[in-house]
Amino acid sequence: MLNPAPTAWFNRPGGEARTLDLLPDLGRIKCATLLLGGVLDPMLPIECQRDVAAAIRPDLLRYREFEECGHGVVPDVPIEAMKLLREFIQA
Known about the structure:
By secondary structure, this protein is an alpha+beta fold. It has four helices and two strands, in the order H-E-H-E-H-H. It has a two-stranded parallel ribbon.
């Protein structure tokens, strides 16, 4: 069930969404990272997800976009997402 209240709180004037920017710190990541992006994500547009991917060292990143997914890739395509997660953990 979708609860719009947390999103409204996060995005309100003066809310955390107005100032939260972790992008400059992503280059500090030192471990393997799996990033699953949903092209239809209404909360974090795919262009922003691509910016996140570009900020992480390529040798540490495994990035995959899903055309028909929103913000929750695992619930949208559980079989494919869990397969990638298992492969990532085993690598």
